[in-house]
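Table 4 source record.
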Amino acid sequence: MARLVNFYPVGIQTFENIREGNYLYVDKTKYVIDFRQKKMKYIFLSRPRRFGKSLFASTLHAYFAGKKELFEGLAIADYEKEWVKYPVLHFDMSGAKHMDKYHQERYLSDVLDDQEAVFGYKSEKVDPNIRLKDLVKKANEQTGQKVVIIIDEYDAPLLDVVHEKENLQPLRQMMQNFFSPVKLLDPYLEFVFITGITKFSQLSIFSELNNLDNISMYDQYSAICGISLTELTTTMRPDVEALGESLGMTYEQCVEELRRYYDGYHFSEHSEDVFNPFSLIKALNNQKIAPYWFGSGTPSYLVKALQKYHVGVMDIEKDSCDVDDFDVSPEQMTSALPLLYQSGYLTIKKFNPILHRYTLGYPNKEVKIGMLKSLAPNYLSPISYDNSSVVGDFLEKLYEGDMEGAMLRLQAYLASISNRLSNKNERDFQTVFYLIFNLMGAYMRVEEDSAVGRADAVLYMPDAVYVFELKYDGSAEDALRQIDDKGYLIPYSAEGKRLVKVGVNYDSKRRTIGEWKIAEA
């Protein structure tokens, strides 16, 4: 195994710990400079889970607390000359997940106890909002400086009950009440920074903060969290070179593989390319490119949303939509699209400046394969899915050059699951094919779109490219003819590999593949 270039901050979200422990830190302090130069005061930032929001909030905390020594060598060290020490009130709401109203109140009380202790007093008040108001004034009075408020993951207590009106309403009212003094406290405040995944803020929690600047979809802040492609290929180049050496890849090959797995996030119209920082850091630390972010668990609120809105596995990637379709508050949701986007399972792929419409899609291989694996048991046999037998057997036959054997295996598999399918119609079986071929993408390159047309599936093997066309109650011959007529092979003719056409017909009466034809180009 190659030597690690840096210590990697796996699971560490505190700026002070990262700097003092000499862990890898990609400098984001230019954004703090930007805030100060523009005299920005109330900021809201939405990003997916495990995307560096808490680390950025912690960086702001250290800056406003005047911890100059932690910023040596960073961009802000050249900008900041005064290093004023402001009182900072930092509320991390991630600790309030899975709580009812009673326990939420106790949590807020405990958090306030800790903050009050910093200023050496214990409030006699009971209401959290009054205690917050008094705390800000006390901190201002004691230090002679205006107060900084940081609210990290403000929506954490609400997400798990977003689909439960009877539970969401009291929790939302409590949070709204708690933060309601913030606007009235403006004369005592220097800076307010709020992070979250969703935009409850626009309708409720911070509704009175009409001067809250939501920077989540501004181009200039697209890489405020996460690792940009520029940062990966400059600051982190030695780390990527070491990973490539460990995996037997060139630097260029390693960058490309990291891009396929972890890149592809776009948070604005002209966003920088952004990598998932959680997965990237795990890959560097483990010296292995694997699906880490999705493996850390699919949030329960997302699973409930997919069930509530009956999301079909082939419908997740929507062709195009207006920003209002996907960048809305959970209270306004009429589909799972907003949560899929805001939670990082879909991202902006293209923006049409004339129509002001966005194309959304999976950001990368890690997310697509992870999402399909989590949805697959709803469509495929759970037993076969669990041990990936059909995918594994199919690929094994292909690697042996036995396409006939691979198709026989697929034929038997489809016959075995036909009774599990809901409607047993054409779309049902299109979904099964879609899942099987895309789950193969965990092991190999799989494509669907090309510039000249859309084949049903394209599989890349070491020595060959297989182009599949599927028919339903048609003929395998028609499927082969369509591959030729539509020019589906053209994009792959320069690959230098064997080109193999596979026409497949599904027989609805037999409920499995009726026939197939294989032909080399």
